[in-house]
UniProtKB/TrEMBL annotation, chain B:
The lineage of its organism: Eukaryota, Fungi, Dikarya, Ascomycota, Pezizomycotina. Transmembrane segments: none annotated. This is ERCC4 domain-containing protein. Keywords: DNA damage, DNA repair, DNA-binding, Endonuclease, Hydrolase, Nuclease, Nucleus. Belongs to the XPF family. Residues 502-531, 888-910 are annotated as: Disordered. Residues 728-808 form the ERCC4 domain. SUPFAM superfamilies: Restriction endonuclease-like, RuvA domain 2-like. Residues 521-531 have a biased composition (Gly residues). It is found in: Nucleus. Its main location: nucleus.
Length: 213, 971
């Protein structure tokens, strides 16, 4: 059900965030800097694209008026595809409220996103707007590192082995293939490679990928 | 054996043991403790070295011999399992008890589901991996009521949320009669924090603790009788440069600690001083302090915490390693801490900027080689000559061996049961090797003229390490040449980025001979001088000019005769060794015939295993090359246990060194910990009837409490009471590593372990939850795992949710991960890949608008949230949950269908992680590689043509290139 990013058309497809006049005076607005915004009469607090909207909730306010947010969610009438409940955690005892919001999100179909400062909340709004048409390649796994980082990542995958060990290993064997094929005795001759590390490495290298049933 | 018989045997524990069991507990305190343990359930804390395992095995044997028991050992590691197994077999053979069954080991590899069921039914003594045990107990495969008793090892590791506590809770809920005994030989963690002992006892479901420090009256009496071991203490002075290096490292440590304090003013850093920095637990202490704010601490702080580990390692190795190896280690450390691309001064380890760091590097070098002013007109050019400082302990060791030799010769040994063996104990296998090399070659001379050995010259016959050190230096110089190349390849780009186009290091290192002249003239830093500084002020790694290296190499080059002599010398040693009787080669032990009768055994300290070493070797002389408090006690116990074995111990330590301080403070800390425990025990309240997590003893009551009276007065669950089951959650077996299942169980939910392909927790037929800790979240975004997991969840469930779980002790905020710079680039869609965590979360919710995110500040909170969500819908179906995500024919397969079938995870995580780092491997083709190849080794050795069909040509080329890239040859 991964939806492709929705293409233009309809309300809120412009390049700016639509802000409901209700939000006047919210410090989050002062932090909205990288993306333009404008007031607009919308049922949500922020219009972040044709299919995305956000309601803003401060936990401090929520504790005083617990019913408020339900009215607001109801007023959305299920219009947007992605309804974000942007929640500002500004009270120390957040547990009860968050538990309740978790349940609400499941019942009412809203996505709870927590922010811990106005700046972070603004950042979320900007990001939602900016990524309105972005692809998802960034979170589907990426491979853009240099040989050295990859190498260190590869060697340090077993626990106990650190970066210095990785450098010592390849520098004494020259290539990774030779290091993989080395016997425990050869490896323990590498400086810094104690018994534990040698064992961890050899186990990792020879451990079958699939667990035998 | 039936459950009834097991219960009968359990009842039988109240009677004195009647069976003719032969125990091997010769000392008074051991016998007292044993009797105490037979009579009561308790936690035993024994000082390290007093023979905890011996006690455990004897206790187990007494139950084993009785037969008809089902006893579970929890928390034993591999070595302890092996020990228990051997000891039980041995005991059974000695006391000839026909009913003894020995130890049965259950871990992932050994038994399948069906086989395990049969094993449990047969009874006996089991050592079971905690993760398997908890699943087996939850699925009822191992009925807790049929268990006669449990033995918990490493009780100090049992915390409220640990698996072991979970196991004990299940056990105690169902079985009140069985015995439960816990052991620990590590009092330190039990004495840290607020009323730690009471908390541990509560987690262990025990009421009584029995403390046995070294100063316990029975222990003292047993060990300080007539049969005391003879101890000779030898304080060895350090050399000047060792002292200088040690002081310099200490200075670095101190500055690093100060930096930490400066960077984190809000923390309680009372205990952070140089003294505690020497302790093993310092890292843990610092991390525990920083943990609650780990997300918030600066990059620099993290770096310093890492540095402290490195520096502490250095303190150890300056004493343990020989001069050449130490220098080599420093080179590696330095290369690894080279600045990252584009880094400025701030991102470097602060200690590298100190003068002390310079001292470390230059002194370390000076111990190996130094510059010598060459006489003549060429005086401006420095030449290098080898120095090769020896470790002072070597000479002392040689003296001691000599003394023992004379001793043996002059006064023939009194008749006793000891072998004439000399046992040398040191801290690790590395030191073992070093000592072996030294002892082998200490009489071999590097010079040609020494070849005439017929004339006895005492001066020349002095043992020396010259031969060994020269050999080491030769291999070091060879290594360094290659290392320069490798580190150039790995880090040159970084360096260039830092220092711009002109990099003096690169020039100096460049191998083209035609440039050498210019290089020589231009080299600002002479040999022997301190290391140069990079433009940003950090120490540059020093690589010698090729010419110098050649000279140095020539200096230590194998002289014409030496080569031969090296061969001959070794040969001679080998011959003198006699037949290299080496039955324990595999155990890294090293045996050598010193005189024809005496054996010199070099062995590393290995905790409890040392007892075996003592018993097997039966040494007359013990040389403790490095101090170890526990081993001293072991010798005491050994000596007191045997009337007829005399032992003389030589105890070597560097005076005024970190080694000495560390030893003394370890002894002191243990004593303090015991004192604190004794005090706490004295004032401890004893009402411990309540369950650890308030879960009622009565499951019925617990169930009633979970009813939500606000929904139809609680009738909603009661109404379809035809199926009135307590609420249940299906949990992936892999999730048992986290505390959440335990907490769910503690809240009265029924936890159904299952092998899940999709999701981690299934709360209802429609709600499925994927749990991610913050660290997991970041890494699973990086490799795309989370995206795939969400896709899979949406295929099988209507309401998938992502649970972002923070650590109990860490701050509940993601803000530190946000890029709040406000720059336009930070929000451009084009750079989505480089985005902060917030950006990725945004992408995830955009990709899956129906994905719900649950935020939880701790596992406890997660349990609460789950409980609340459960009140919404019906109960999940374990069979359906297990089947979700499997291919058609796989779903038909047997193991996954069985709900309790705690089949092991399909893939091993570590090789998986390694594979993910290989370029060309994607989450998609990973599976096909894993199917086709057996392990990493096989992948590494595959050719492009072999890989091609699996992953495609392009990827195959990348994978091959990654493994084959040779840093020594190309570039």
């Amino acid at each position: 059900q991964a939806l492709p990013p929705a293409g233009g058309g309809g309300r809120g497809s412009g390049s700016s965030i639509l802000v409901s006049p209700r939000q006047k005076g919210n410090p989050v607005l002062a932090c909205l800097k990288s993306v333009p915004w404008e007031y607009s009469d919308i049922p949500a607090d922020y219009g972040l694209g044709s299919t995305t909207c956000a309601l803003f909730l401060s936990l401090k306010y929520h504790r005083l008026h617990p019913e408020y947010i339900y009215t607001r969610i109801r007023n959305l009438q299920g219009r947007y595809n992605l309804r974000v409940l942007l929640t500002l955690v500004d009270v120390p005892n957040h547990e009860d409220s968050l538990r309740e919001l978790s349940k609400t999100s499941l019942i009412n179909g809203v996505t709870v996103v927590l922010a811990w400062s106005a700046a972070e909340a603004a950042r979320y709004l900007e990001l939602y707007k900016a990524y309105e048409h972005a692809g998802f390649a960034a979170i589907r796994g990426q491979q853009a590192e240099g040989y050295a980082e990859r190498l260190v990542g590869f060697v340090t995958a077993p626990r106990n082995i650190n970066k210095a060990d990785a450098v010592a290993l390849v520098s004494s064997f020259g290539s990774l293939r030779r290091a993989v094929n080395a016997t425990p005795d050869q490896i323990s001759a590498v400086s810094g490679w104690g018994e534990k590390k040698v064992r961890a490495w050899c186990k990792a290298v020879e451990e079958p990928f699939r667990v035998r049933k | 054996m039936s459950a009834a018989a097991g219960a009968a045997a359990a009842a039988g524990t109240s009677q004195p043991p009647v069976q003719p069991v032969k125990l091997s507990l010769p000392l008074v305190y051991q016998q007292k403790l044993f009797e105490e343990l037979r009579a009561e359930d308790e936690l035993v804390v024994l000082a390290r070295g007093l023979g905890l395992m011996r006690l455990v095995t004897n206790l187990l044997h007494s139950y084993d011999a009785a037969g008809g028991n089902l006893i579970v050992v929890v928390g034993a590691d591999d070595r302890e399992n092996a020990w228990i197994g051997e000891a039980l077999a041995e005991h059974a053979a000695i006391s000839m008890t026909p009913r003894a069954r020995g130890l049965t080991l259950v871990n992932t590899e050994s038994a399948s589901v069906g086989a395990r069921e049969k094993l449990y039914a047969a009874g006996g003594i089991f050592s079971i991996t905690s993760r398997i045990l908890v699943v087996d107990m939850l699925t009822g495969m191992l009925n807790p009521e049929s268990v006669t008793g449990m033995i918990v090892l490493h009780a100090d590791r049992v915390t409220a949320t640990s698996l072991e506590a979970f196991i004990l809770r299940i056990y105690r809920q169902k079985n009140k009669a069985g015995f439960l005994k816990a052991f620990s030989d590590n009092p330190d963690p039990l004495a840290a924090g607020f009323s730690p002992l009471a908390a541990t006892l509560r987690n262990l479901f025990l009421r009584k603790v029995s403390l046995w420090p070294r100063f316990h009256v029975h222990v003292a009496q047993s060990l300080e009788g007539k049969k005391k071991a003879e101890v000779v203490e030898l304080e060895v002075p350090m050399t000047e440069s060792m002292r200088a290096i040690q002081n310099a490292v200490m200075e670095c440590v101190e500055v690093s600690i100060q930096e930490l304090k400066k960077g984190n003013p809000g923390l309680d850093m009372e205990g952070w001083n140089l003294d505690s920095a020497l302790l093993k637990s310092f890292d843990v202490m610092v991390r525990r302090q920083l943990e609650p704010n780990w997300h918030r601490v600066s990059w620099k702080t993290k770096q310093i915490v890492g540095d402290l580990t490195v520096l502490r390692g250095m303190l150890r190795s300056v004493l343990a390693l020989d001069a050449v190896s130490f220098l080599q280690q420093l080179d590696t450390i330095h290369a690894a801490h080279a600045p990252a691309p584009g880094s400025a001064r701030q991102t470097q380890s602060p200690w590298l900027f100190l003068d002390a760091a310079e001292t470390i590097f230059s002194e370390a070098k000076r111990r190996v080689y130094a510059s010598a002013q060459r006489p003549g007109p060429d005086a401006s050019i420095d030449a290098l000559r080898p120095v090769l400082e020896e470790q002072p302990k070597w000479a002392v060791l040689a003296d001691v061996l000599d003394e023992i030799d004379r001793d043996l010769l002059l006064e023939p040994p009194a008749r006793d049961d000891s072998n004439g063996t000399i046992l040398i104990m040191c801290s690790d296998a590395d030191t073992c090797r070093q000592l072996r090399d030294y002892l082998q070659t200490m009489h071999v001379k590097p010079r040609v003229e020494n070849k005439v050995e017929e004339f006895y010259d005492p001066e020349r016959d002095r043992p020396s390490a010259a031969f060994m050190m020269r050999r080491k230096l030769r291999s070091y110089l060879r290594w360094k040449r290659e290392f320069a190349q490798v580190s150039a390849q790995l880090f040159a780009e970084n360096q260039r980025a830092v220092s711009g186009a002109v990099d003096p290091r690169l020039g100096r290192r460049g191998p083209p001979p035609s440039k050498r002249r210019r290089v020589r003239g231009g080299g600002a830093v002479g040999a022997g001088a301190g290391p140069g500084r990079l433009e940003n002020g950090s120490i540059a790694q020093y690589f010698e000019k090729p010419g110098e290296v050649a000279e140095l190499m020539a200096e230590v080059q194998i002289t014409a005769g030496e080569d031969k002599e090296e061969e001959e010398g070794l040969e001679a040693v080998r011959q003198r060794d006699g037949a290299a009787a080496d039955p324990l080669e595999d155990m890294d032990d090293y045996y050598r015939l010193y005189d024809m009768q005496d054996l010199v055994v070099i062995h590393p300290y290995e905790g409890d295993q040392d007892e075996h070493v003592l018993e097997e070797v039966r040494p007359r002389y013990i040389i403790m090359y490095e101090p170890d408090a526990a081993f001293i006690r072991r010798v005491e116990v050994y000596r007191s246990s045997h009337n007829d074995r005399n032992v003389r111990v030589y105890f070597l330590y560097y005076g005024g060194s970190v080694e000495e301080q560390r030893y003394l403070s370890a002894v002191r800390r243990e004593k303090d910990a015991f004192t604190k425990l004794i005090k706490e025990r004295a004032s401890m309240a004893l009402t411990l009837a309540a369950d650890a997590h308030g879960a009622a003893d009565d499951p019925q009551e617990a169930f009633l409490r979970t009813l939500n009276t606000r929904i139809a007065g609680g009738g909603r669950l009661a109404a379809p009471a035809a199926t009135a089951q307590p609420p249940r959650v299906v949990v992936d077996v892999r999730e048992f590593r986290s505390p959440l299942p335990s907490l769910l169980h503690g809240r009265g939910l029924v936890v159904v372990p299952c092998m899940l392909t999709v999701g981690d927790y299934v709360l209802s037929p429609t709600v499925c939850v994927e749990r991610k800790s913050v660290g997991d979240l970041i890494s699973s975004f990086k490799d795309g795992r989370l995206y795939a997991q969400c896709e899979a969840m949406f295929q099988h469930y209507r309401h998938p949710a992502l649970l972002i779980e923070f650590d109990q002790n860490k701050s509940f905020t993601l803000e530190p991960f946000a890029d709040l710079s406000g720059s336009a680039g930070s929000v451009s869609a084009a750079h989505a890949g480089a985005a902060d965590l917030q950006g990725k979360l945004v992408l995830l919710t955009l990709a899956f608008p129906k994905l719900r995110i649950l935020w939880s500040s701790s596992p406890y909170e997660s349990a609460e949230i789950f409980e609340r969500l459960k009140s919404l819908e019906g109960e999940p179906d374990p069979v359906a949950a297990a089947r979700a995500g499997l291919d058609g024919d796989e779903a038909e397969g047997a193991p996954s269908q069985r709900p309790g079938g705690a089949a092991p995870p399909a893939f091993n995580p570590v090789p998986q992680d390694m594979l993910a780092n290989v370029p060309g491997v994607t989450p998609n083709n990973m599976a096909s590689i894993a199917l086709e190849a057996e392990n990493i080794k096989e992948v590494a050795n595959m050719t492009e043509d072999e890989l091609g069909p699996l992953v495609g040509r392009e990827a195959a080329r990348k994978i091959c290139g990654f493994f084959a890239k040779d840093l020594l040859e190309d570039g």
